[in-house]
Every structure is written in structure tokens, then in C-alpha cells.
Design brief:
Length: 356
């Protein structure tokens, strides 16, 4: 009924109808009471005008009236609260099995990464008729991912992942805006969402990519030497990551967390924050060494390890070829930092300066 009103953007997602219904209900309630109050003012002004009622009748309190004008607004706002909460939960809980797209916002562009390997700037191709979950972060300031035709808006924050989702219904091109003032060219931080026919999208996603996002992550995983500790045979000094994603992780302080994207990200950039039970706090931080894109690749790879679509690579053969120093496992050669296990017999010859 409202589609052809030029005031309103197209409705191109399953969320649009819900948001519009709530919006129009709020407008209708406000309009009704505005009209009611105005009409009563007019009516009373005429009905109780001075010529007809020279002496005012004073009324002191009416319990029934007070209950009425408290009860009715309470019922209305509670109805609005429940209704909007239902929509809020719908919007914040992505359906299971949604396809995933990673987004990095920066001054002043949107960088998208598809799990199939496609990368885009200021444009996002998605299929119609499928759930799409966005996993978003910013490499500088706060931005906000806003697609009016989908009726979704979600902040994109530095230092963490936020998520939103949509289910586009109609193929077409839709505006993407940044809805958070983020600097001088904030108004130019725009793009478009291209909703495609699903079969065309599959063709598009498979064309001209060399490897998936997870395979890019696997390369980083090897490049940064993660394989030295995170081994598939459980013999590493870090946890085996196979099958870890999406499951509960017991920490050494007794807490349990779910290994989601945010947990993986935190464990890469601030490894000491949550130590897995049974492991030591020995992993170096990768804060400042990885771009957001590399972190996303690693997250996608660890996710693929979780659902069985990837395997942990074998450790590279020569030790300490990674980007950070790795202490060897043998206690003899680790003598310098390991006071308790150093014995004179073992280290005496190599370390003449060792204390008697
Ligand atoms: Cu990004 Cu405003």
C-alpha cells in the first residue's frame, strides 16, 4: 500500500515489512492522540465558554479518571515495547546457516570479503532469497552500516566484531550509507548493495577468484608460524583448533566461553585475555602485526577447521621459521629461560657461567 510513496525507500528484505508496520503504527498512535487532544481542546473551549459557564465548577480528584489515564498509556507503551523487542530480537539473531560476508569499514570506504574469496569495495553482491550475515569491524573510527531498503542499520566498531543480517527479497541495486559521522568525507562513504538472482550470484562468486577466504587465512596461519603450536596431533603447546569453532571452551579460570568470531579475534590480538584450560599464557600478541583483513582470513580459516572443511597444516619442517621466536620443546636447549630443569650435568659444558 505504501510502496509507491516516493517518501519511502523500496522494501527489499524480509525485515522491511516488520519495521514499516511498527513505524506506521507509531505514527498512527501519535496522530490519533494529537487529533484527540486537539479536538478535546476545541470542544471544551466551546462547551465551557465564559458566556455559558460564568462560574467554574472545581473538581478535586477522580480515582476512576486517574486509573484510566494511567492504565491506557501504560497498555499502549507496553504493547510498543513488546512489539519492538520482538523485531529487535529478530534483527539481532541471525538464522542458522546464513552465508557470511566480512566487512571492514575505514575512512572512507567499505571493504567486503566473501568466504568464496571475492573482494569488493563500496559494492556488495548478494543473492536474493538467502540469509546473509555480516561480520563487521572498522580499522579506524566508528562507522555505521545502513541499508534503508533492507531497514537495517548496525554500528561498525574498531577493535571488535559486530554482526547484522538480512534476507534480500528483490533483485536490484540498493543504497548503502554510513550512518555515523566519521570525518570530513563521511557523506561520501557510500556504496551499493547489488541483489542478484541466486544462480547468477553463484556464477559471480565463483568467477575469477584464486582461493577462498579460508585458504588465504591458512597461508597466514603458516606464514606467522601458528602451526608450530596449534597442531592437529594435540602435541602442540597451544590448543588443537580442529573442531574448536562454535563450541564451548573451558578457560583456566573456570569460565566457559563460546569460540565465536570475537573470541578468535581476541585470542589472536590479545592472547592472554582468555587462556584455554591446561595451556600456558605463552602466545605472543599479534596486535599491530596483522591487518583486519588478515585477521578475518584467520577467523575464516579457524571457522573452516571447526566445520571440517579445512585441516590443520603440518608444522613446517625447520623449527623457528615463523615470524616470532619459538622456544624449542627439548629442555636441554631451552635451558636459558628454564631455571628449574637446568642441571649441571646437562648444561655445564654449554654454559660455563652457570651458577655452581
Ligand atoms: Cu563512515 Cu561515516
Amino acid at each position: 500500500m505504501w510502496e509507491h510513496l516516493p517518501l519511502f525507500p523500496a522494501r527489499a528484505s524480509t525485515m522491511a515489512g516488520h519495521v514499516d508496520a511498527l513505524y506506521f503504527a507509531l505514527v498512527a498512535i501519535a496522530a490519533f492522540f494529537t487529533f484527540l487532544v486537539s479536538a478535546l481542546i476545541l470542544f471544551f473551549a466551546i462547551r465551557y465558554r465564559k458566556g455559558r459557564n460564568p462560574h467554574a465548577t472545581q473538581i478535586h480528584g477522580s480515582t476512576a479518571l486517574e486509573l484510566l489515564w494511567t492504565g491506557i498509556p501504560l497498555a499502549i507503551v507496553m504493547m510498543i515495547f513488546v512489539w519492538s523487542s520482538v523485531i529487535f530480537f529478530m534483527q539481532t539473531r541471525p538464522p542458522k546457516g546464513a552465508m557470511e560476508v566480512y566487512l571492514v569499514g575505514k575512512q572512507w570506504m567499505w571493504k567486503f570479503q566473501h568466504t568464496e574469496g571475492q573482494r569488493e569495495i563500496n559494492a556488495l553482491h548478494v543473492p536474493a532469497g538467502r540469509d546473509v550475515r555480516m561480520i563487521m569491524t572498522s580499522q579506524d573510527v566508528i562507522h555505521s552500516f545502513y541499508v534503508p531498503a533492507f531497514r537495517i542499520k548496525a554500528d561498525v566498531l574498531p577493535g571488535r566484531y559486530t554482526t547484522t543480517w538480512f534476507h534480500a527479497t528483490t533483485p536490484g541495486h540498493y543504497h548503502l550509507f554510513c550512518a555515523e559521522y566519521c570525518g570530513t568525507q563521511h557523506s561520501g562513504m557510500i556504496g551499493e548493495i547489488v541483489v542478484m538472482d541466486p544462480t547468477e550470484y553463484d556464477k559471480w562468486a565463483a568467477s575469477g577468484v584464486d582461493g577462498s577466504l579460508a585458504s588465504a587465512g591458512e597461508k597466514s596461519f603458516q606464514h606467522y608460524g601458528c602451526t608450530m603450536c596449534h597442531r592437529a596431533d594435540n602435541a602442540g603447546r597451544g590448543p588443537n583448533l580442529t573442531g574448536a569453532f562454535g563450541h564451548a571452551v573451558l578457560l583456566d579460570d573456570g569460565r566457559t566461553v563460546t569460540a565465536d568470531e570475537s573470541y578468535i579475534r581476541e585470542s589472536i590480538l590479545n592472547p592472554g585475555a582468555k587462556i584455554v584450560s591446561g595451556f600456558k599464557n605463552i602466545m605472543p600478541t599479534f596486535e599491530g602485526q596483522l591487518s583486519e583483513e588478515e585477521v578475518i582470513g584467520l577467523v575464516a580459516y579457524i571457522k573452516a577447521l571447526g566445520n571440517g572443511t579445512a585441516n590443520l597444516p603440518l608444522p613446517v619442517s625447520e623449527p623457528n621459521s615463523g615470524a616470532y621466536p619459538v622456544a624449542p620443546k627439548q629442555e636441554g636447549s631451552a635451558a636459558k629461560s628454564d631455571k628449574t630443569t637446568t642441571t649441571p650435568e646437562k648444561s655445564g659444558a654449554a654454559q660455563p657461567a652457570a651458577k655452581p
